[in-house]
Amino acid sequence: MKFALLGCLVAATAFAAAPAEKRTSALILPMDKGSEGLTLKVEAFANEALREYAGVLVRSSDDLFGITPDEEAVASLKRADTGFKESKAAFDDRNYEDAERKLRATIKEYGKSVGAMKTCGNLCEAVAMYASVLQARGDVEESKIAILDLLALAPTLDLDRKRYPQNFLALKALVATSRNAQLRGNVTVKTKPAGARVFLNGDLQGYSPLTMQTLPIGKHLMRIERPGFKQLGVMLEVTPEDQDITQELTATAGYKAFDALMDRLAGEALKDKGGQTMSSVASSLKLDRAVIGVLREAESGESTELTMAYFDLKTGRRIAIKRASFQGDEFGQLKGEVARMVNHLLNAEGTGEKVSRSADPLDNKHGMEEWQGEDRGGRNITREKKSKGGDPLDNQNGTEDW
Q1: How many CA atoms lie within 13 A of 266 on its CB side?
Q2: Residue 28: which of 155, 193, 242 has the closest Cα?
Q3: pTM of the model
Q4: What pLDDT was estimated at residue 145?
Q5: What confidence tier does 328 reach under pLDDT thresholds 50, 70, 90?
Q6: CA–CA separation, 311 vs 321, rounded Å?
Q7: Which residues contact 153 (CB under 8 A, 6 or more apart)?
Q8: Hey, which of 108, 125, 139, 357 would disulfide with 134, CB 3.0 to 4.6 Å?
Q9: Are the beta carbons of 196 and 249 closer than 8 angstroms?
Q10: What is the pLDDT of residue 382?
Q11: In the chain, what percentage of residues exceed pLDDT 70?
Q12: If 0-12 CB within 10 Å is exposed, 13-18 middle and 19+ buried, where does residue 340 land?
């Protein structure tokens, strides 16, 4: 009994002594239009690096500002799902005239609810039933167009052979191998403000401005999200001609209040100590610390400059600062650069203990670590080791006896 009580006491003492996690976020502040599109991407990379450290409770901009759902889209989705049930009942009863009418209305309603849809869901099944009904009623060409939409929305969708007639399944297979099914189109998506996440048929494609290339012709679900803004959805019709789409996003009151402080916060982040703005942000966003990044396009327009500073928001104390510049992200180099900056900032305090490590030996490497080294092959005189029972060619470069 005494040992049990002692164990409980030790456990309770250890638990009580555990330091509280510091609520921390990466706040990336774009200073011009040219750097605006990188905001969310840099923030995501910085937060990912922050999650590697013990004692850090990461709060992303999704947590801080949220994404306001499109209420009209949510209401349309409910109506569409109700229409789908009625359409499915008419289709299963082979009442094709009633099914066609109901499916038209249902698909139209789904078109209004894209902002509330994460995946194709019942819409794909509705399009498949609609294409089958058109074929059954003798409108084969219209059925082929609907099948192209289905292939664009869900190219791997497996239809129930018990529900759909064999001649329709054969028509679907024929359309899938047709010339029209091989046609592709490019769509460029821009948003105001830039830097929004762009999803296509449920999958993240990147951040605006974004060009999505070689998309199958037909209908696609495009959803646009940016923390602090109202969610937006569009039923995208891809054609062989290039398209440019620009969408203006609606900010929430909370994000507008933060945006009004952005310039002053950036100014404090570049100083040795934060001030009233930083304290206000800490209170309103409920943060203890932040990695504040100031993004700006270089005067040449060929690179982007990033200054990151690690602050204790409540006291305004700057723990560390780091600057870097980079050109684009064509080969994914931006993620590694941001991670190195975050590591520098947290390690500067001396408490930056990583809690997880990648198994990838090339993680956090940029491929140039050894380029300036003295080792050019052959034996390394300063680190020469004797090999016992190993490869006889170990530490040899093949030119020793020339």
Answers
A1: 17
A2: 193
A3: 0.81
A4: 97
A5: confident
A6: 9
A7: 120, 123, 124, 127, 201, 218, 219, 220, 221
A8: 139
A9: yes
A10: 38
A11: 82
A12: middle
The pLDDT tens digits of the residues spanning 60-103 come to 999 999 999 999 999 999 999 999 999 999 999 999 999 999 99
The residue extents of the domains of the chain are 20-66+252-347, 71-182, 184-248
User: DSSP code of 381?
Assistant: G
pLDDT confidence of residue 349: 78
Amino acid at 158: D
Angle between helices 122-136 and 166-176 (to 10 degrees): 110
Total count of residues recorded for the chain: 402
CB 178 within 8 A of CB 197: no
Q: What angle do CA 188, 192, 196 make, to 5 degrees?
A: 70
Peptide bond into 361 cis (omega under 30): no
CATH for 71-182 is 1.25.40
Hey, what are 333's tokens?
A: 């180099």
Measured between alpha carbons, how far is residue 212 from residues 114, 144, 195, 330 in Å? 18, 25, 15, 15
Q: Is the pLDDT of residue 391 over 50?
A: yes
Hey, what CATH topology would domain 20-66+252-347 get? Answer: Rossmann fold (3.40.50)
d(CA 41, CA 323): 17
Q: Is the pLDDT of residue 387 over 50?
A: no
Name the average pLDDT for the chain.
86
Q: How far is CA 90 from CA 2, 128, 160, 269, 304, in A?
A: 72, 14, 17, 63, 58
Contact assessment for residue 198 and residue 208, using Cβ atoms and an 8 Å cutoff: yes
CB 109 within 8 A of CB 80: yes
What dotted CATH number matches 184-248?
2.60.40.10
Collapse the DSSP code of 313 into the 3-class scheme (helix H, G, I; strand E, B; otherwise coil) and give the result.
Answer: coil
